[in-house]
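Hey, I'm writing a tutorial for new members on how sequence and structure tokens pair up, and I'd like a real worked example in the thread rather than a made-up one. If someone can provide the structure for the chain below, I'll link this post from the tutorial.
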Amino acid sequence: MEHLLLLQRAGKIKDLERQVNYELIPAQYETYERYNANGKRLKDGKRLLEKSCDYIADFVYIDTETGKKVVEDTKGFRTKDYIIKRKLMLWRHGIHIKEI
């Protein structure tokens, strides 16, 4: 983080953000019919089947030389979950994660 703050002060990067959320797979819902006690049909209900799958980037910033957005992740160990999310980030958002 300190390194990125120094780069931002030097004008090499801008718009530094931490813990930026990216939705990879939206939440999945099921619609069902609802009725009141008299049997009158009410507005359809929705039931959550699966929560969304998200990736939280450690850092996001703009490289001032290229003008491109950089998504950076500090990794000590690449877990199976991270590898899948990294692939989904590229497929869904077209973003290649920079690993540090």
